[in-house]
Amino acid sequence: MNIQKTLPINSMQKNNKQLEPGHTQALVNFFYELGLFKKIEHCGTKFAGVKHPDTLGEHTCRAAQIGFMLALSEKGNPERVCAMCMLHDIGEIRIGDTHRIAERYLKTFEAEKNAVFEQTEPLPEEMRAYIRKLWTEFSQQKTLDSQIARDADLLETMIQAKEYLDTGYRAAERWLTNGEKFLKTQTSKELLKEIKNTAFTDWWDNLNKI
Fold first, then answer.
1. Cβ contacts of residue 169 below 8 Å, gap of 6+?
2. Beta bridge partners of residue 55, listed in sequence order
3. I need a labelling partner for 155 at 20 to 30 A (CA). Which of 6, 54, 59, 72 fits?
4. What span, in angstroms and rounded, lies between the C-alpha atoms of 78 and 152?
5. How is residue 123 annotated by DSSP?
6. What does the alpha-carbon distance between residue 123 and residue 2 come to, in Å, rounded to a whole number?
7. CB burial class (10 A; 0-12, 13-18, 19+) of residue 69?
8. Long-range pairs, 184-187, Cβ under 8 A, ≥24
């Protein structure tokens, strides 16, 4: 597997291009905007009684970590999968996180696409094109890497739901079951079985014994 082919900045490195002043400001503004990931909470699990759910930033971070492992297992491109996991939700910074009930009434896909394309418009051309390409690839779900990234996104949601379930939010169980039918990779399906049978405290249960 030639990972180097898919990295977005190779051509910039080879040509030794420097960012133009307008682009540096655009990138800094973009970084500040991405900081809102750490502040925007998921809203769906509030229906399960969770008063302060995880944030978009917390979700995307663990999803990317899961995606890296899944890609290694499924012979995908770990770096590309990580990039998709980290970037596919950026539009929600501007339109907010929408739960399934809201999506009965709102055209969230078009709104999110418009947000992503507007967010990335001021960026350098190669960066802008690559982010949009990753976002579109993830949305279309036609490639192995996009399917792995989507599975990672779902698994992270299910793991978070299991944590809520283990701490008393019984209604969170539906997030464990509803997403199962959308998993595509064999590794993800096997992991979900383990998630359901593993308490979120198991990993440290034997570490604090004297």
1. 45, 48, 49, 50
2. 41
3. 6
4. 11
5. S
6. 27
7. middle
8. 184/147, 184/150, 184/151, 185/70, 185/73, 185/74, 185/147, 185/148, 185/151, 186/74, 187/70, 187/73, 187/74, 187/151
Query: Within 10 Å of residue 79's Cβ, how many Cβ atoms?
Result: 17
The residue behind tokens 């998921």 is 42
132 vs 22, more confident: 132
Rounded to an integer, what distance in angstroms lies between the CA atom of residue 69 and that of residue 88?
A: 18
**Angle (deg, nearest 10), helices 186-196 and 144-166:** 0
Q: How far apart are CA 66 and CA 63, in angstroms?
A: 5
Specify whether the CB–CB gap between 62 and 148 falls below 8 A.
no
**Residue range 142-192, pLDDT digits in tens:** 999 999 999 999 999 999 999 999 999 999 999 998 888 999 999 999 999
Distance CA 125, CA 129 (A): 6
Contact of 77 with 3, CB cutoff 8 Å? yes
> Cα dist. 81→50, 62, 111, 169, 210 in Å?
29, 12, 23, 31, 40
Q: pTM (2 decimals)? A: 0.88
Report yes or no: 95 and 115 within 8 Å, Cβ to Cβ: yes
What is the Cα–Cα distance from 13 to 11, expressed in whole angstroms?
5
Quote the distance between the C-alpha of residue 158 and its chain's center.
13
**pLDDT, tens digit, for every residue of 39-71?**
999 999 999 999 999 999 999 999 999 999 999
